[in-house]
Amino acid sequence: LLIYVLSSSMSKSKITLSHAARKAIDLEAKYGAMNYAPLPVVLARGKGVHVWDVDDNQYLDMLSAYSAVNQGHCHPRLLKVLKEQSERLTLTSRAFHNDMLGRYEEFMSKKFGYNRILPMNTGVEACDTAVKLARRWAYDVKGVPENTARVVFANNNFWGRSLAAISASNDPSSRNGFGPFMPGFDLIKYNDVAALKKVVKNPEVAAFMVEPIQGEAGVVVPDPGYLQEVSQICKDNNVLFITDEVQTGLGRTGELLCHYDEGVRPDIVVLGKALSGGIMPVSAVLADDEIMLTVKPGEHGSTYGGNPLADALAMEAITVLEEEDMIQNSAIMGELFRKGLKSIDSPYIECVRGKGLFTAMVITPRKSRTAYDLCLSLMKKGLLAKQTQTHIIRFAPPLVINHEQIEHAVDLIGQALKEY
């Protein structure tokens, strides 16, 4: 056995690793870009809510690859579709038609109630696409002078780390050292309708893009009615309302889409992550003709966007969520989980918040110990979660989690807090 010393600005913890785990981590350290600081666990397989490391230790996955594995690890129906479609046709590019894309586009259009879909791969690509569509709509439909359109975002948003995404961010760790930034972006306070009313008075504003619940910021839930007010403000000022549902969508918050809870219909909806059940990158942008048809052939696209394998997986991924009652389970188990967390008697829990199986536990930093240290303790006990910010742990298990597993998770978290 070897000792792995994890060093960061937050903590130093000694973790005992096997030879197999040490070898895997060393290979990453030697040959990979050092742009992540993962927990020192090396996973080798998964099934449902559980994952196993290279030494066959079992863990309860309470992160779901940042909500990409909503359907559970290696769901058999998704693996069946993966096998069948991959043996038939995987990629054609958009130079040619394929027999799956039209079926997928019809499925998505009817499922979510929009005229059209633009298929992409990653969440950041889809968000970037939404911003491009908003700008083009502003010039072609709203009549904004060329190259002057502005798009508004909320402080502490997160939709990726591309140049456009970090230009729309106020996160120093994403921005520092990567300027100059893309112009035409404005930031306002999240959950602040007065700030939105003020900024959209500028006739050059094309759109407001917002997460229904802010994920990376720490599962920040806005006031009831916030999205309704946002929708109305945007309508009143001829500004597009865009919801980034990449992380909150597809059952995560107990609704098929998080914004359904407030009965709003955004002008553009962005989906990703769980759209493939965690098997491959699949994302999508939904909008009506007035917006989507402003983009002409050759003006936007992706080699892999809309590939037949992604099309088949996405349709099955959504069907599985609905047919296996995962969305309802998310709502029920989420309430149970937060109730359990709130029942833990610990001076270090500042608050618990969330919706569905999207939960944050805000903890009080203790001397040199932070949420990262608590995640390490949970890992040793067989539960995987990851901190966001310095003092928040985000819990987002697969939507197939059951009552017994929720109670087990609460018990492990309570034990870790006693040792914190």
Automatic annotation (TrEMBL):
InterPro entries, sorted: Aminotrans_3, Aminotrans_3_PPA_site, Class-III_PLP-dep_AT, Orn_aminotrans, PyrdxlP-dep_Trfase, PyrdxlP-dep_Trfase_major, PyrdxlP-dep_Trfase_small
Gene3D superfamilies in the cross-refs: Aspartate Aminotransferase, domain 1, Type I PLP-dependent aspartate aminotransferase-like (Major domain)
Pfam families: Aminotran_3
Cofactor(s) needed for function: pyridoxal 5'-phosphate
Keywords linked to the UniProt accession: Aminotransferase, Pyridoxal phosphate, Transferase
One cellular component term from this protein's GO annotations in UniProt: cytoplasm
Main EC class the enzyme belongs to: transferase
GO molecular function: identical protein binding; ornithine aminotransferase activity; pyridoxal phosphate binding
Zinc as UniProt keyword: no
Xref: SUPFAM superfamilies: PLP-dependent transferases (SSF53383)
EC number: 2.6.1.13
GO biological process: L-arginine catabolic process to L-glutamate; L-arginine catabolic process to proline via ornithine; L-proline biosynthetic process
Pathway per the UniProt entry: Amino-acid biosynthesis; L-proline biosynthesis; L-glutamate 5-semialdehyde from L-ornithine: step 1/1
Reaction(s) the record says it catalyses: a 2-oxocarboxylate + L-ornithine = L-glutamate 5-semialdehyde + an L-alpha-amino acid; L-ornithine + 2-oxoglutarate = L-glutamate 5-semialdehyde + L-glutamate
Entry's family note: Belongs to the class-III pyridoxal-phosphate-dependent aminotransferase family.
Full protein name: Ornithine aminotransferase
Organism field: Spongospora subterranea
Lineage, highest ranks first: Eukaryota, Sar, Rhizaria, Endomyxa, Phytomyxea
